[in-house]
Every structure is written in C-alpha cells, then in structure tokens.
Design brief:
It is built from six helices and 16 strands. By secondary structure, the protein is α+β, with helices and mostly antiparallel strands.
Length: 294
C-alpha cells in the first residue's frame, strides 16, 4: 500500500489559528539505551470500528494532529490487528515512525491502555521504546513467481486442502527436517511468539533473546518433533514436496501467497520498527506474565 493509502486513515487537520500537537522543547531523535523518546508532532491513525472512530474524533476535537509526512510519532487507536496494519502500511510506504498504540480492540497485546486524551502527551515523554525486527519472507510459487513481504509476528506455511502438507526444512543451507508431514509449520519472532506460535504449542521467547521459534502445526511425522529455537541470524528455507498434489500457502502476518514451491525467511535488519510502551506496561513484561497464566 502507498503512503496515500495510509493517509486515508489519518485524522490530520492543520487549520489556521490552531496549533499542531507539539511537545515543546523536545528533540527529534529516537533515544538510545535508557534515554526517553522525544517527539514534536503527532499523527493520529485509527481503525474503522465505531469505538476507535469515536475516540479519534474526540482527540481531534481537542487539538490538531499533523499529516503523516510531517509527524515524528504516530498514535494508533485500535487493536493488535490494526497495529500490524499500521506497521505494514508504514513499511510499504518507506516512512517508518515510532508508534504509540492505544487499545480500543480486544486483547491489545501490542497496545497501551486507553484512558482518554488528557494523559497522552505526558505518557509519550515517559514511553519506553522497543525496537522490533521483522522477518523478511521471499516466496517462490509453483509458476515461478517471486513474492516478498515482511512479518512482525510470524511466517506460516499452511496446507490448502485436505491433503497433508509435506515440507523440507533447512537452516542456513543444511537440511534439518527432510520431510515434515502435518498441517504446516511457522517461524515466529519474539513479538509473535505469544500469538499463533503459542496456540501451536510453541515456546514463548523473551524479547531480548535474539531467537526465533520454529514450530510445527499439528505434525504427523516426525510425530515427536516439538520444533526448535534458532538464533535470529538463521536463514530458514522451506521446500514443499509434491506441491501440485499437496498445495501449501504461506502467510506473512496477514499477507497470503498460495501454491508455493519454496520459501526463504530471515530477519530484516534494515526494516526495524519502534513501538512505544508505558513504563511498567511494556511488552517484555507482558511476555513474562503470559507464561504464568493458568
């Protein structure tokens, strides 16, 4: 999607006589280490749900937000799905900004709590930045078409029909599983390890682990293979056996490519993204807490 597509969801108004939302006396750069983030101008994005739209209208009535191309931080209203949409939109438009998400969805694992407009500005000055490195997926279809995409959570290979998928798995050019038979297999980042990966009985990865979770989905053979934890520098290749008889699709977050023959996945260091969290409510603490939910 282009930047114009992203702009269609922005509540951005720059009327004369009214100021843009601005944190005065603050710099432009993202911090390093334990430094606090500093921003001047905010863009507002929201999902198309009634709850998010109403909240966005309330925020826009109090002060002006700037267009995305003038902003140095994004406030996103919605749920986890909308946060992923926002990150992908910015990735596709080659304009990546830090995002402070406010949960108006269901789970809100990637979001902060929404308390109204009054506390957003001071919360941003105290926010803790988290650098997220997405996966880069390069797929080759049965017809030879090449498709690339990035995934913040995971890249999943899934059978398309009643036929069991059969997939060869290689890590850094070495075949590790000659043939995995089952519903599929996924490779998850630490951020995505509590999503589809967890529901497939994969491990929860701490954010600073610099690891990836390779997890089978309903495996039939090898029956006892639980998956693997790989260094994030790994390049994983999946080759589909009997692709015409046993068609397989690959999904990078929400982007699906059907009838694939081969998929390569690795960390995209050049596509790093920044999420902002309230102190004490950061994603790393949520990942720890998730392991003690009964």
């Amino acid at each position: 999607q282009c930047e114009e597509c992203s702009l269609s969801r922005i509540m951005a108004r720059c009327k004369s006589g009214r100021r843009s939302i601005e944190l005065t006396g603050m710099g432009d750069a993202m911090p390093s280490g334990d430094e606090k983030p500093s921003f001047k101008k905010l863009a507002l994005l929201h999902s198309d749900t009634e709850k998010s739209t109403t909240a966005a209208e309330e925020l826009a009535a109090r002060a002006d937000f700037v267009p995305l191309d003038e902003a140095d931080v994004v406030v996103a209203l919605g749920g986890d799905g909308f946060m992923l949409d926002t990150l992908h939109d910015m990735h596709d438009s080659d304009r990546t900004l830090p995002v402070f998400g406010l949960n108006l969805g269901t789970v809100g694992f990637l979001m902060n709590r929404y308390f109204g407009f009054g506390d957003i500005l001071p919360r941003l000055t105290k926010a803790k930045p988290l650098i997220v490195s997405p996966l880069r997926m390069e797929a080759v279809t049965q017809s030879g078409e090449r498709v690339s995409s990035c995934a913040i959570n995971e890249v999943s290979l899934l059978r398309e029909t009643r036929q069991t998928a059969k997939v060869e798995i290689s890590v850094n050019g070495r075949v590790r599983i000659p043939e995995l038979a089952g519903d599929g297999v996924l490779l998850a980042t630490p951020v995505g390890s509590t999503a589809y990966n967890l529901s497939a009985n994969g491990p929860i990865l701490p954010l600073d682990s610099r690891m990836l979770a390779l997890t089978p989905i309903s495996p039939f053979r090898p029956r006892r293979w639980p998956g693997a934890i790989l260094p994030e520098r790994s390049r994983v290749t999946f080759r589909v056996h009997e692709p015409a008889k046993r068609p397989v699709a690959v999904v990078a977050d929400q982007k699906e490519v059907r009838d694939i023959a081969e998929v390569h996945v690795e960390i995209a260091r050049d596509k790093e993204m920044t999420l902002l969290f309230d102190p004490g409510h950061a994603l790393d603490e949520r990942i720890v807490a998730e392991q003690f939910i009964t």
